[in-house]
Amino acid sequence: MLSFRQLVCFILSLLSFLSVFYSVGKLGVFLATPVIQQRDFRHVLLTTLLDDRGLLKATLFSLCFNSVWIVLFVIQHSAMKADVVKRFWRKLGLEMAERSVYNIGTAYCLLIMLKNWKTTQSYQLWYVDVESSPVLWWTFVSAHIVSWVVIYGGSLLMDLPELIGLKQIYYDVNDLAPPMSYKSRELRSFYGRLRHPSFVGLSVVLWITNSMSLDRLLLAIIWSTYMYLSWNTNKTDLEYQKYQLGRKKVELTNVQE
């Protein structure tokens, strides 16, 4: 029989699961969908943009507006994993819900950003016309699909149920220690510096697009910089991964024999 505390945490973990997959799905569609320009679209050069005060003000307003939601996401993604926040949840006796609440906050920050996003197509760094070429269309879409498969596969390898917050509830209900305590010291140290798989995969979904508008460029630059600064893995982590890969190769070789 679940206690009231466990029931609340279980509901939060389910909400975390649904929120993450829904928001990431929306983000994937937002980033992967090729841009089709309308027939009457007039491409604006940067020099023209600077000369046209009205267009410049509208573009800068959109970029500043979008920056608010991007910064909100970055602040939430950093602040909610701080030690002081984790200690707060421990004092309340809800430490097993900490990951779920973190994911819910991330998901809704993403959804708010996507709902309020303002596209600025007046100036583009590049534009590839994919409307008349199914091959080009599917090239861009396939690059995103493969990248998300890699990201999702990496999440499974990094213990997806624990990342979502479901495993913490299961362990608590069965009177077990938190799942992270069963992982090796090297793995816990590695997770402390890297909790998202595939820097390359996330970079692809940010930068590979047929239309690099200023708003898309803003998002790609800020998120890429944030990933680069946050993922501070070191040589020890690399050696640990090489060691685990070697073990896995030996295990697979023994199975085949």
Structure overview:
The protein is mainly α and 257 residues long. It contains 12 helices and 2 strands. A two-stranded antiparallel ribbon has the order 1-2. It is globular, with a radius of gyration of 22 Å. The chain starts with a helix and ends with a helix. The mean pLDDT is 83.
Summed up:
This protein has helices at residues 4-32, 46-51, 53-79, 83-91, 98-116, 134-157, 160-164, 166-173, 185-193, 199-207, 214-230, 235-256, and strands at residues 124-127, 211-213. By secondary structure, the protein is an all-alpha fold. Helix 3 packs antiparallel against helix 5.
Strand order of the largest sheet: 1-2
Amount of beta strand = under 5%
What's the SSE pattern?
HHHHHEHHHHHEHH
Distance between the termini: 46 Å
Subcellular location: Nucleus inner membrane
Main location: nucleus
Organism: Aedes albopictus
Transmembrane segments: 55-75, 96-115, 135-158
Can you give keywords for this protein?
two-stranded antiparallel sheet, membrane, mainly alpha
Lay out the secondary structure:
Layout: H1 4-32, H2 46-51, H3 53-79, H4 83-91, H5 98-116, E1 124-127, H6 134-157, H7 160-164, H8 166-173, H9 185-193, H10 199-207, E2 211-213, H11 214-230, H12 235-256
Antiparallel strand pairs: 1-2
Helix pairs in contact: 1-5, 1-8, 3-5, 3-11, 6-10, 10-11
Main location: nucleus
Protein name: Nuclear envelope membrane protein
Membrane topology: Multi-pass membrane protein
